[in-house]
Amino acid sequence: xxxxxxxxxxxxxxxxxxxxxxxxxxxxxxxxxxxxxxxxxxxxxxxxxxxxxxxxxxxxxxxxxxxxxxxxxxxxxxxxxxxxxxxxxxxxxxxxxxxxxxxxxxxxxxxxxxxxxxxxxxxxxxxxxxxxxxxxxxxxxxxxxxxxxxxxxxxxxxxxxxxxxxxxxxxxxxxxxxxxxxxxxxxxxxxxxxxxxxxxxxxxxxxxxxxxxxxxxxxxxxxxxxxxxxxxxxxxxxxxxxxxxxxxxxxxxxxxxxxxxxxxxxxxxxxxxxxxxxxxxxxxxxxxxxxxxxxxxxxxxxxxxxxxxxxxxxxxxxxxx
Length: 321
Known about the structure:
Number of helices: 5
Pfam family, one: AraC_binding
Number of strands: 24
CATH superfamily of the largest domain: Jelly Rolls
Radius of gyration: 19 Å
Shape: globular
Keywords: DNA-binding, Isomerase, Metal-binding
CATH topology of the largest domain: Jelly Rolls
Protein name: Mannose-6-phosphate isomerase, cupin superfamily
Helix content: 10-25%
Domain Cupin type-2: 69-132
GO molecular function, one term: isomerase activity
């Protein structure tokens, strides 16, 4: 693999292309300044305007959300995994039918494996533009988003209508639902009974890992963050590890799995038989299966990254009532 070929497998933070009309709440006050990024795979965007950086999926999707202070993402649910870690800023995650069942605040580097099947939302509570990186279960992550009824109703009042086909139509641009496409139906009261309302204790202890705890645990070996035997025990169709300066392999290695490197802090040099490249914070690198390579921080100071690999576990609901 040449350096040029490897570069096509790297999505640079500075090259990310946002979509500002990705979801049904794109015009709703308080949520109308969101930027959605689809890095690997189609993601969950409902807009044809969404740019996809790397289309081939490794069994999961990688995306990101950027928001200014006080901007929030509206309540929705997923049938497959939705994992976030904070790249920049300070974020509040909340959940439940009305977003009042529980909440947790995440700082930079913290990770949250949100239980499937519950309504969740998030907002930037920091003082600057913030960015969270996302790992979404399955090849087709777009098929598993369910909006709380009030989100669909509010959006309609501001010009956006979601069709049952999962596509957004913007009446402000003169768009209307095709005759053959009915609007997305609202969940009934009976439907809503199927969505759990777990409290803080039930969610945080089993689904949140803190950056500095992982830094300590990864002092001598990779810290297993999400997986069957990890800190956050789950089988969402992928494993997540946390690596720092002391936990990288001492010799070149290869995996028989897709390996996605997501840089948190510091600059990292990836070297393989055909060359080398440097990865910076916010960069995402898709290493193909079977490629022998080495990975080292390229300068002194704090260095950390998340490594995501596909597993044979099927993507699907993981929340246990």
